[in-house]
Structure formats: C-alpha cells, structure tokens
Amino acid sequence: MICPICKKPADNSAANRFRPFCSERCQMVDLGTWAGEGYRVPGAKLPDRDHPDDRRKKLLN
Ligand SMILES: [Zn+2]
Hints:
The protein has helices at residues 24-39, 52-60. By secondary structure, the chain is mainly α. The protein has one domain (1-38, 52-61). Zinc ion binds at residues 3, 5-6, 8, 21-23, 26.
C-alpha cells in the first residue's frame, strides 16, 4: 500500500503500528493537518507561537 502522506510504499502488516502511514512521522503530519484546520477560527486570535502550517512544511521537507 502507499502512504497517503509521502506517497511512498508503506508496510501493511501488523508490524506497522502506524498504518495506513509508513511511519510515525507521517502519522503525526496527518494529525497535524486536521488539527491545523481546527485552529482556523475566523476572528480568533492565535498565540504568537510556531504556526501549524510552518511546522507541517518542515515535517514534509
Ligand atoms: Zn509516509
């Protein structure tokens, strides 16, 4: 099977506890994706910490 995050072949056996992702890294990227969507509340003030989108880009690079 193909990892939905990095599009590389992922281990589909029970040994891979990050299924359907290839690794913990891709699993966390996926979690960060939907968590980031939830942060975008119109008009809400965000703390000036690292931006979710920036963090995701770093993980993908
Ligand atoms: Zn992956």
